Amino acid sequence: MANVLMILSGVDHWTGADGTRLPAGYWAEEFAVPHRKMTEAGIHVDLASPVGGKPTPDPDSLSTEGAGPRGPEFATYVDDHSDILGNPKPLSDVRSADYDATLLVGGHGPMEDLAHDPDMGRVLSDFEASGKIIAPLCHGPAGLLSANKPGGHWLFEGKTLTGFTNEEEEEHGSATFAPWLVENMLKARGAKIQSIEAWGVNIVEDGTMISGQNPQSSGALAGKLIDRLTAH
């Protein structure tokens, strides 16, 4: 049986460019859809967050207004899995040797904590060094920013990937609030970004990196991950 580590933000807010805070966290669809698909495929899934404790779903990701007609479905899935969501591993306790892949769940929360977390950087460095799959989704690629080589160069410089685009941030209405945009920061650090039209399903593969553009790409990302893991 393959083992996958899903990493979720541990914060309940997002600090804007003006210093104010908005409720945030992980995006429920990006946990619910991959988790369901992977467990149904017989893959063992563990959860982790920076300090352990129960991660907070972005309130918008639980409603029809914020997440579309399936919002309540994702809210129910989160409630039904409150036992595992209530006790994720602290990232400081994660050993990459225990897993075959990691999936970084999005939402604005990762911009607040995963992007700067030293244990996030250590875990990613270990996975990359071991040639294991790293699968960031939507705002999850913000977590990639935590990993650097000795000397300060970004670990994933030159990688081709995707993530939540500037266009999607603008259409979501959060671009003016944001202290920085995921697409801009990834490009500035040296990533090669491949995106499609806003809200389209887009998966980009580059070696052991499999990335998804947005919440709509959650199922496709999980499918690619399952295919890779079951092929071995």
TrEMBL record:
KW Membrane (keyword) present: no
Entry keyword annotation includes Lyase: yes
Species: Streptomyces camponoticapitis
Entries under InterPro entries matching the protein: Class_I_gatase-like, DJ-1/PfpI, Prot/Nucl_acid_deglycase
Protein name (database record): DJ-1/PfpI domain-containing protein
Keywords of this entry: Lyase, Stress response
Domain DJ-1/PfpI: 29-226
Family: Belongs to the peptidase C56 family. HSP31-like subfamily.
CDD domains attached to this UniProt entry: GATase1_Hsp31_like (cd03141)
Region Disordered: start-end pairs: 47-72
